[in-house]
TrEMBL record:
The keyword Transferase applies. Residues 19-175 form the Glycosyltransferase subfamily 4-like N-terminal domain. InterPro entries: Glyco_trans_4-like_N (IPR028098). It holds the Pfam family Glyco_trans_1_4. The keyword Cell cycle does not apply. One of its GO terms (molecular function) is transferase activity. PANTHER family: BLL5217 PROTEIN, GLYCOSYLTRANSFERASE. This is Glycosyl transferase family 1. Keywords: Transferase.
Length: 364
């Protein structure tokens, strides 16, 4: 198939990844290409050049409009809308069999566009007013919508999802997150350093539990870093930086427990399954999709309760390391995810195909 992958534009689609959405789009393009599909990645022009890349904007918009993603800036909104509209016009004229839309843009959901190119839209954020109506209005024979978890799907459709919306769990390559049979007794946390990710709770809980803790990930909110994280570093708590995937995997695999601290309704939790693949049980907050993703591989407590999280750490440490690894192998592999993507593409294309006319049926 000839497949267009439309990405979000806040960060480049390139390692080391700024977050889960960037990792998702990169692995999608990489995995589909490896399976023999002709893939064009529509993303910022500073994304990974190994892909066939159609630059929606020359550079990611966090460089041009730093810190304005969630502030309703009219200049950013106009620039992004114009860029997406032009890219969607190119996709419509590009002879694509299917579009996998990960953009979070309302423009890709318009029926006049999804009627031209069969479209799969994958949602990657909790519901918000600027997109909710367009998502609810958009399912059609040639357009399906996926959420990353059952909890995420319920958040978008509390009264029940329509038939053309469903769950598509994320997946990772287990070989990229190698299992290790024992840890060094420390805790680890990985993710974007932003308030909604809750690294400050991980620090508080690790100190209460008396475990060393290392934080990994990009500093997304400098003010949060300066006020809430940097003053807490030192002694048994350190920041390990924003590392490339293979180096990060080796660092995580050395630890004994992963602290997962979402302070928002986390749609999935990619960092959790990466750590689980390495054999780390999870101590974390039961928020968003956490219970669905972690399952028997961890111990979860109410969100924001540092004392409860500290008590959960020894509960998680008692879980054998094979348990989280086996859960990932059973439910969250990249092959399983790509199989599901291909099946959805085929179903969308079949549903979008015009029905034969009575005359042509009679002739056949």
């Amino acid at each position: 198939m000839r497949i267009a992958v439309l990405a979000h534009l806040r960060h480049p689609i390139a390692p080391p990844f700024a977050g889960g959405l960037e990792a998702y789009c990169w692995h999608l393009a990489d995995g589909l290409t490896a399976r023999g599909h002709e893939v064009v990645l529509f993303a910022s022009g500073d994304s990974d050049p190994r892909f066939t890349l159609d630059a929606v904007v020359p550079v990611h918009h966090e460089r041009r409009f730093p810190g304005l993603e969630h502030r309703g800036d009219p200049g950013l909104r106009a620039a992004v809308d114009g860029a997406y509209a032009a890219a969607l016009d190119r996709i419509a004229a590009g002879g694509f069999d299917v579009l996998h839309n990960n953009s979070l843009s309302r423009l890709a959901l318009e029926r006049r566009r999804t009627q031209v190119v069969p479209t799969l839209t994958s949602l990657h954020a909790p519901p918000y007013d600027a997109l909710r109506w367009f998502v609810h209005d958009s399912p059609a024979p040639g357009h399906r919508i996926t959420a990353t978890s059952a909890a995420h799907l319920r958040a978008w459709w509390p009264d029940g999802a329509p038939p053309r919306a469903g769950v598509l769990h994320n997946g990772i390559d287990p070989a990229a997150w190698p299992w290790r049979d024992a840890g060094d007794g420390s805790a680890v946390w990985s993710g974007r350093i932003a308030r909604v990710k809750g690294a400050h709770h991980a620090i508080a809980a690790a100190r209460r539990a008396g475990l060393p803790l290392t934080l990994f990930g990009p500093i997304e909110e400098p003010d949060h870093w300066e006020a809430d994280i940097l003053p807490q570093l030192g002694g048994s708590v350190r920041y390990g930086g924003h590392l490339p995937g293979p180096v990060l995997a080796a660092e995580i695999a050395r630890a004994s427990v992963f602290l997962f601290t979402p302070c928002w309704d986390e749609p999935f939790g990619l960092a959790a399954i990466e750590a689980m693949a390495c054999g780390l049980p999870v101590a974390g907050f039961a928020r968003g999709a956490a219970a669905e993703i972690v399952g028997e591989a961890g111990h979860l407590v109410p969100s924001g309760d540092d004392a409860a999280l500290a008590r959960a750490i020894p509960e998680a440490l008692a879980i054998p390391r094979r348990v989280p690894r086996e859960r990932v192998l059973r439910l969250f592999t990249r092959d399983r995810w790509l199989d599901a993507c291909e099946a959805l593409y085929a179903a969308i294309r079949a549903a979008a195909a015009p029905s034969p006319s009575p005359a042509s049926r009679a002739a056949s």
